[in-house]
Amino acid sequence: MAQNDINDDETVGFENEEEKIIQYLIRGTNELDVVPIVGMGGQGKTTIAKKVYDNKRVLYHFDVQAWCSISQTYNQSELLQEIFSRVTGSKNKGYQDDDVLVDALADKLRKSLMRKRYLIVLDDMWDGMAWDDLRFSFPDVGNRSRIIVTTRLEEVAKQVKYHTDPYSLPFLPLDESCKLLQYKVFQQEGCPPELRDVSLEIAEKCKGLPLVIILVAGIIKRNKMEASWWHKIKKSLLSYLGESDGYSLTTMQLSYDNLPDYLKPCLLYMGMFSEDARIPVSKLLSLWIAECFVQNIECAEDYLMDLISSNVVMVSKREYDGKVKYCQVHDVVLHFCLEKSREEKFMLAVKGDFQPSDWKENRVSFSFSNRNLIHQCSKLISKFASLGSKTRTPFCQDLISLITTNQGGFSDWNFFRKVSETRILKVLDLSSHRVPSLSSGTFQRLIHLSTSQFIQKSSIFIHDHICLNQKL
């Protein structure tokens, strides 16, 4: 659940839409109202919501604001905790029992909003159940509080509606599309006159989808002053996009094909993280090094900046000195990484039960949104192990990376015993787990382990070695 500090450069377009939505927020009924924004993936729903959220008139109008991304696999207590933390300014309380948290947090959030005029943004809602899980925490005391919900699904928009009809976000007109493309390629430099015609032709092919425009700009700016390069990209767009409706994903394929080979595994590795995850850059770079995608931290930082420059990775938050602290990817980019990883047998992301007989990848990421995370992970690893015993080829002999995301409870020793069977494991990230105690003997059999992280009681234990095997 990312707070609203992504895309730290200027946004272009949607000026008329921004003003319409601002009027929905500051005028109209005194009762609590929901403003649903509907649009397809990559159309700019989050962008317009961000512009409205950061508008000075909106900031002045509301007492408190909170931004929360929902994602397809959400955790109710984490959502409530996220919104409560934004509203009150308090820190997350971390690992707690969901049974205790949900009712208590819902009540605390409702009480904290009771005497305030609030604006809540619930970004990227996929399921009406998420609204049912949250709506009773938003009190209506007749002070013009508002909630913005962005969604791809019209049925979700209709379900969350109170007074305001769902707002269907239009596609960017051609002039704004061209303006966005030129800005993303040249920033403040301005587009040279000799490239304006071809930039307009390329913008027209992007069909008014901001994400497509941004991805194309990321390809173009590698050779931005060469007219022949612009025409080559225009020709590529014709062959990639054709008449298909899946412009964002097909453009993502074009972006991927134009990445240097050494950056491709780094991008695909983003699929190891859950949807809407704000990824700590220090952790990501350490994982890349442990995987031997890159040799040192300086080179890893350069790789990340190349991916950001290509517009396939977004800056989520910066340090005071300007360095990137957190990054994330658009859900379209994440979907592409998952599909491409499956196609190339690069990585498997597990979000629920599945048949281990389908498992052929040597990198696995477990991501669950409910309180049974540890049980489900242990159960699935047991399935892997039992599969290996039947085939006489242990699943773990080829496993290189094992990562879990989302918060969980205490892990038992049986879980670690099974993990210790993964003889060539190089990356073990169980930082979503808590364990009573561990000793160095736990890792004794993992002779290739480069990095591991997990929660030991109230602290994070980090185990690091140098990369021992460059060929794995």
From TrEMBL:
One of its GO terms (molecular function) is ATP binding. Residues 15-189 form the NB-ARC domain. It is found in: Membrane. Keywords: ATP-binding, Coiled coil, Leucine-rich repeat, Membrane, Nucleotide-binding, Plant defense, Repeat. Residues 272-334 form the Disease resistance protein winged helix domain. GO terms for biological process: defense response to virus. Coiled coil: none annotated. Belongs to the disease resistance NB-LRR family. The keyword Hydrolase does not apply. GO terms for cellular component: membrane. It is a peripheral membrane protein. It comes from Capsicum annuum (Capsicum pepper). Pfam families: NB-ARC, WHD_DRP. This is Uncharacterized protein.
